[in-house]
Task: structure prediction
Amino acid sequence: MLLYFTGTGNSLAVARHIAAATGDSLLPLAEAAGTDLTAETTVGLVYPCYDFNTPPAVRDLVAQLQINPSAYVFIVVTCGAQTGNSVWTVRRILRRKGVRVAYCHKIRMPDNSATLFGRNPNDQLWKLEKYAPRLQRIVDDVRARRRANHFGAPGLAGWLTGIPAVERKLLGGFKPQVNPDLCIGCGLCVSTCPISNISISDLNHAAIGTACTACLGCLHVCPRQAIQVAGKPVPKERQYRHPESVKC
Result:
């Protein structure tokens, strides 16, 4: 069973590739949190790294998982560059549940947060080809049920961003907001949100709830650029979706 959390499709694309090669099924992490997985002999977690750590929503969902301690559990993190403490945080959560992670690795992907700094994530599509061989190695390792940890020790940056006060400030700075003058209530953001935190209001405008984990999926999918960060619209040419991002 492959469990994934995705905003712009990077982690979903990786999870799909692994599942196709191993014959495992796919399930969004939000659905898996309420599912009994104790009969599964293999459980893979594929999720992104935000601000040198695991997204808050991923931490909360992983804490709810029901996994057999004897299962082969592996983690693959998608990231723009560094993974920080994103693996170690989840390993620690699972360890408290008596579950040991056997294998960990990472895949670099176009950075969807780059658009907030005036860069175009679509200029990073070269990563998809460059890191394809690593993805194949991960597939081979998982199929052979190898045990390996391809990460270094936890770092200071990940520890700092994991401090609740710091994390709240970072999330507040990256939290998307809806411009009602531009929103047409199409609902694309609703179907994209991985934690069902967006709804369409009575005024036919998108409304983002308080549980936002700043995955930016809604910002990148909005056809009118009505979803903004810090009041700034994102040019259409800097909106990013993984080429294979259609959800299963």
Summary: Residues 10-22 form the longest helix (13 residues). The radius of gyration is 18 Å.
